Amino acid sequence: MALVESLQKAIDYMEQHLLEHPSIEAIAQQANVSPFHFQRMFLILTDLSVGEYLRCRRLTLAAQELIKSDHKIIDLAYKYGYDTPEAFTKAFRKQHGVSPSDARKGIGKLQSHNRLVIQVNLKGAEPMNYQIIEKDAFQVVGIKRECPCGEQGGVAGIPEFWSEVNANGTADRLAQLLNGDIKGLLGITNNYNEDNNTIDYWIATEHTGEEPGDFAVLDFPKSKWVMFEVQGSAPTAMPEAWRQIYTEWIPSNGYEVADIPAIEAYTAPDPYRADASNQIWLAVK
Questions:
Q1: Judging by DSSP bridges, how do beta strands 216-220 and 198-206 pair with one another?
Q2: Residues 73, 158 within the same domain
Q3: Is residue 215 part of a domain?
Q4: Rounded distance between C-alpha atoms, residue 111 and residue 95, angstroms
Q5: What is the mean pLDDT of each run of 10 residues along the chain (285 residues)?
Q6: Domain of residue 62, CATH code
Q7: How many CA atoms lie within 13 A of 110 on its CB side?
Q8: Which of 250, 15, 45 is nearest to 113 (CA)?
Q9: Helix (H) or strand (E) holding 15
């Protein structure tokens, strides 16, 4: 099944089971990809995590029902997955800017998060430079941290993690261990945690030989990889490249995403420069 059709099938499944709190495993199964890769694709394409989308859709439907019916607020709270009216009111106010009681009175404006429809337009697509590489099993060494998906107020995320690693000398130590085929420092995402809406994020380097005792090790199996060249300042060029991969390259080629963590390789001396050249490595099957 084509990627676009698979994603739409998964979105339709979410809509059909909104009030049943479907698991990420059940949703990803509709798209025929792993839970981790589905969450990654969904976040890149929509700027929302799966959990955020489900929550926003429930609160949109709750607001519609609130103003169209005389159902008690406590009953709506339970229907849409909140244990207490207070929790429902807090979430409702965060999304809509007004309390449920004020919304029922017609005070303030409501914010509607509409049902998603995935569309892909391949006309005029920018060309992508890539290389298919058969790579034997290898390992990377580095450090990992549980980081939030999307923005969570007051919680340090991936940019802060990189700043810390660059400032405390860890990046330099990892660079000295590099002796594999994939050059540069690597950013690797893995293990989506549905309950916490987080992922494990690695900052690492490919290394063969004796394992350094103070770094963790992540093993990769033998696989076929697509290496994409990414031109431009990393903070903007990397997300744009991922969108192009998922919306243009994969639908246009006969590959599926393998259940292996993807790799961002920061090969440029200064990844922030406008003329920087970095890489994305995506395992396929």
A1: unpaired
A2: no
A3: yes
A4: 7
A5: 76 93 90 83 83 92 91 93 93 93 88 79 67 95 86 66 93 93 93 79 92 89 95 92 85 83 93 93 93
A6: 1.10.10.60
A7: 24
A8: 15
A9: helix 3-16
